[in-house]
Amino acid sequence: MLFNNLDQLYRSVIMDHYKKPRNRGELEGEHCVTVNMNNPSCGDKIQISLELKDNKVVDVKYMGTGCAISQSSASMMTEAIKGLPIEKVHQLTFDFSEMVQGHEHNDDLDLGDAEALHGVSQYPARIKCATLAWKAVEKALREADKEKAQQ
Amino acid sequence: MDIQSIRQDFPILNQQVNGHKLVYLDNAATSQKPTSVIQTMVDYYEKYNSNVHRGVHTLGTLATDRYEEAREKIRRFINAKSEKEIIYTTGTTQSLNLIAYGYGMANLHKGDEIVITPMEHHANLIPWQQVAKKTGAILRYFPMESDGTLDLEKVRATITDQTKIVSVTEVSNVLGTVNPVKAIAKIAHDHGAIMVVDGAQSTPHMSVDVQDLDADFFAFSGHKMLGPTGIGVLYGKQMLLENMEPVETGGEMIDEVGFQSATWAELPWKLEAGTPHIAGAIGLGAAIDYLESIGMDDIQQYEEQLSEKAYEVLSNMDGVTVYGPGKRSGLVSFNIDGVHPHDVSTALDSEGIAVRAGHHCAQPLMSCLRCESTVRASFYFYNSEDEIEALARGIKETKEFFGHVV
Question: In the record, which residues are listed under signal peptide (chain A) (predicted)?
């Protein structure tokens, strides 16, 4: 069989999230913030909604279009951060970004299924795909901070 | 054409990528360079690197001569009337911006119309959007047929007496459509509009005659036709260029400078401010020498044969959608059902096959095709029929791989 190395990137758990996305949708309400993010070089699009209460991400949903890496990463991200304190979410997004770039990272944090994306580090052209949803989460948290400051 | 001997002239092609023989099918993004072009640029830097049109020393004279010889080669290559009509730019994008800002800003008024096609590259779209916003002109589009071609009757119906600028790509970088720019130019001129042709994807692949096309402006890039990046050309009819104010001012483009004002140099230098890409221009000249040694008509004929084969093989594959018309220039855009173009591209790359995936800087066209992005395989005359077969095998295996892991 060809594409032997490709299995290291497209693990079955990744394809499972791609074909059966978790937490797809949008959140509306007073504690919710929704942001959009594009990857202009390839046209991938992601929308992330967070519901924030007591400094925690109590719910998260995403919508988007794009490749298996960007969309599965979004799906896995929602599972990884749901219910976590915001501070922990920041640690996870940092950790994830370090992992897919092939840098040393903190193994103690639980990235859940998203751990399967570590193979992306062997495909530098695809790192941006993997990090898109996680960057969008950071953007959503910044937006929420801004809104809070304005109130 | 002896492809195997041609390939010897392109050292980059002779390498392994990810354990496989490189199959380079991303020529619409940029072409590879033959040894003669690379060596010509090395010679410039090693033997006579100097600024042009300034010093009177020996190296400066040599550099200036070679730089201007390249301009004459370009003039001949596209059959312009005069070297004054050949303006060096950084590439098609800068050429088109020069037309939009240099000509468009000065000549468009509120209510005037600019007409383009839905298949334009962003480089022939956004400058017009910007200039329309600034001048109050209206940006309109020719309707496009479902196979990605233009219907001349509809073109005729779209151009009105309010139309001042028509700007059309000669070859679509996504669909491979060859647009009837000569016929469109005639219609534009009948209504008093000027005709701009984006030649980025045509000039490398077919013979261009700007006088026969009767294009008022014609833009192309060096790097897609064996030359280096950073050098391109704006052709304009002399009368139009004479009346154009420079967008950029500074060194090299002046006649006389006082404390409060300045006058401009003659064409073409009036529109070339600052130290140009000298090595690039000379390299482009060498690229034209190479293309002419093979012959543009032979190149066009051979590439049509390649793309015909690719179109035939791919459009007969189950679960593969091919975009664009049957008769096309040397590229094929496609999608595999259920597999995103980026994933296709990564899979093919692991087999050493380089293709482009994405929106190809043509987002409005993607929405017409009802997709976010496509995979594009684009050919040049150094590609072989074996490489088309390698592509077909790669696509088949990609389908199997993603079918298998789901």
Answer: none
* Residue B371 appears among annotated catalytic residues: no
Query: Which DSSP symbol is given to A36?
Result: E
Please give, rounded to a whole number of angstroms, the shortest distance from the CA of B397 to a CA of chain A: 7
* Residue A136 sits at the chain B interface (C-beta within 8 Å): no
pLDDT in tens, A45-74: 999 999 999 999 999 999 999 999 999 999
pTM of the model: 0.94
Hey, are the CB atoms on A12 and B405 less than 8 Å from each other?
A: yes
Q: At what angle do helices B278-294 and B296-315 cross, to 10 degrees?
A: 80
**Residue B22, domain CATH:** 3.90.1150.10
Q: What is the number of domains present in chain B?
A: 2
A69 vs B342: CB contact, 8 Å cut-off? yes
A7 in contact with B, Cβ within 8 Å: yes
- Domain containing residue B366: 3-30+296-405
Contacts with A66 from chain B: Cβ below 8 Å: 340, 342, 372
- A4 belongs to a structural domain: no
Tokens of residue B73, six digits: 């080669």
Which candidate from A2, A7, A68 shows the least CB-CB separation from B340?
Answer: A68
- Which residues lie across from B262 on neighbouring strands? B257
**Domain that includes residue A18, residue range:** 9-150
- Read off the pLDDT of residues B17-73 as tens digits, 9 standing for 90 and up: 999 999 999 999 999 999 999 999 999 999 999 999 877 899 999 999 999 999 999
Nearest by Cα to B86 from B76, B96, B94? B76
Which residues of chain A does B373 touch, with a Cβ-Cβ cutoff of 8 Å?
A: 42-43
Partner A, chain B 344-373, Cβ-Cβ below 8 Å: 346-347, 350-351, 357-359, 363, 366, 372-373
A39 domain-assigned: yes
The number of domains in chain A is: 1
Q: Do A6 and B342 touch (CB under 8 A)?
A: no
